[in-house]
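Bumping with the actual sequence this time:
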Amino acid sequence: MAHYAFIDENNIVTQVIVGRNETEVVNGISDWEAHYSEVYGQRCLRTSYNGNIRKNFAGIGCQYDPVRDEFIRLRQYASWTLDSNNDWQPPTPKPKDVPMLWDEQSLSWVDKVFVTEE
């Protein structure tokens, strides 16, 4: 079982499907990215949950970086910026070895233990 992402003209993922493994040959078809591209009318790229293929698993709305041949995760918070490795970074680094959650309103890390639902 393999996963494939469909990319629009702006390199945004529009759909992700489960498809054939790239080692399978069915009715003479062995290039599944090309096959699915033709069938769906959009560029198709393989993706994987474990990050072995194109860095991150592609999700709808994610961006594809054709220079690095990798998917960029969705930005979780407006204040975070993309670094040179295509990873989202908070304005301040997360403290190590402490269970903390990012609070976008205060733009800071807060103790996970004291977070309450409002």
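The tokens above came from a reply further down the thread. Residues 32-40 form the longest helix (9 residues).
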